[in-house]
Design a protein that fits this description.
Blueprint: E1 3-8, H1 15-28, E2 33-37, H2 45-54, H3 65-89, E3 92-96, H4 99-109, H5 117-129, E4 137-142, H6 145-158, H7 166-169, H8 171-186, E5 193-197, H9 202-212
Parallel strand pairs: 1-3, 1-4, 2-3, 4-5
The structure holds adenosine-5'-diphosphate and thymidine-5'-diphosphate.
Length: 213
């Protein structure tokens, strides 16, 4: 049975880039790694509805913190069986965002902390009611808000499919989300967390992960 690892962080932190680099390094070392990313746009109607709502569609859907979190949670619920299959056939399954994204962004939208009601609601919903597989390790790519925002902005300018959505345009929300992520990490929410710096060397992370396994 493989190990489930989730990479978390702000929009534009560099999660996707880091996943690509670390996976290459791990595969070079002979580790079998499967990669997936949430939201699963184009594969899950719930993910697509959430993304469209963040771009102004579906009336007041995006105004509801709980309705948006439910969309992302239903996406993960639909993916649960496939995730279990991947864990059976790989040493590692590395996810670009998982349940902690829902906890951090939702709590930040509610102006709550990592020990607040919203995080409890997400925990019960996703790990309790929906039976999501808990990650064995969570990685927080802890990049300063301004740097993440700049990266998200320049990516949006060069790629029309990555134009900034409502969460990405809200720098106060990003700041609060970063604070909740750090609280979740220091409280070891669900599993141990490693906090990674912006200038982290992907090869060094791959080495640490190979040793951790
Ligand atoms: N370590 C890095 N140094 C410089 N630019 C980076 C780095 N990591 C990512 N980027 C750039 O920043 C932007 C956002 O990165 P991305 O991996 O898409 O972030 P995320 O998946 O966290 O939203 C991309 O344009 C990417 O090329
Ligand atoms: C997966 C997930 C994402 N989010 C948020 C984080 C992002 O701001 C937003 C969209 O996810 P993101 O991964 O940033 O997608 P995009 O490719 O459109 O940039 O949704 C949650 O609030 N909960 C979740 O469970």
């Amino acid at each position: 049975m493989g190990k489930l690892i989730a990479l978390e962080g702000l929009d534009g932190a560099g999660k996707r880039t880091l996943v690509d680099r670390v996976v290459t390094q791990l595969r070079d070392r002979g580790v079998t790694v499967a990669v997936d990313a949430f939201p699963r746009y184009g594969q899950s109607v719930h993910a697509d509805l959430g993304s469209e709502a963040l771009r102004g569609r579906h009336g007041d859907l995006a105004d509801s913190v709980h309705a948006m979190a439910l969309m992302w949670a239903l996406d993960r619920r639909d993916a649960a069986a496939r995730l279990r299959e991947l864990l059976e056939s790989h040493d590692l399954v590395l996810l670009d965002r998982y349940v902690a994204s829902n906890a951090a962004y939702g709590a930040a939208r509610m102006h709550e902390g990592g020990d607040g009601e919203f995080v409890g609601w997400v925990t019960d919903l996703e790990f309790g009611r929906f039976g999501a597989t808990p990650p064995e390790l969570q990685l927080l790519l802890d990049v300063p808000v301004a740097l993440a925002a700049e990266r998200a902005r320049s990516r949006g300018a060069s790629d029309a499919t990555r134009e900034l959505d409502a969460y990405e345009r809200d720098s106060d929300l990003q700041t609060r989300t970063g604070a909740v992520y750090r609280e979740l990490a220091s409280a070891r929410w669900v599993s141990p967390w490693w906090v990674l710096a912006a200038d982290l060397d992907p090869a060094a992370l791959a080495l640490d992960l190979a040793e951790w396994m």
